[in-house]
Amino acid sequence: MTNDQNREEQARNLALDLxxxxxxxxDRGIPYSQHVDDAVAVLRRFGYEDEDLIxxxxxxxxxxxxxxxxxxxxMIIIDIGQDVADLVWAVTDGLGKNRRERHEASFExxxxxxxAILVKxxxxxxxxxxxxxxxxxxxxxMYRKEYPEFHRRLYRPGHADEMWAHLEELxx
Length: 172
Description:
Elements: H1 7-18, E1 23-25, E2 30-31, H2 32-45, H3 51-58, H4 69-79, H5 82-91, H6 99-112, H7 114-133, H8 137-154, H9 161-171
Antiparallel strand pairs: 1-2
Helix pairs in contact: 1-3, 2-7, 3-5, 3-7, 4-5, 5-6, 5-7, 6-7, 7-8, 7-9
């Protein structure tokens, strides 16, 4: 990390580098950087400013979207730090033949690192908000269908209740 960059800036720059050439919505010309910025904005909107949490939100998809998962995680450890890498790893889907199987391992990892649930909620809210804004009914429908299990597996009373309520309202 350079002296003139804080961990958040370093994480954002690494995320932009790792997601270079990826599109959040290619048809609309929306680069993937928009999604990571939106996810971070969700955390901030709900009052979360912790530097490691924000850094992890910037990098939440970096390992999952990389063909070199271990190498990407190692980059995060070296460039940003172990605590951020642990949060990123916790929200990274496991391997599996379908979406449900891939999520199964990440539920267990997130429950072992409760702050990772905040990262996942920021991501999920950003995805649903963007899906609604862009009229992607199928995407919103998928998240609506997954919500009961998502909530059952990750919700903890008194932990991010405002974020959970907002997600539920979005999906109603």
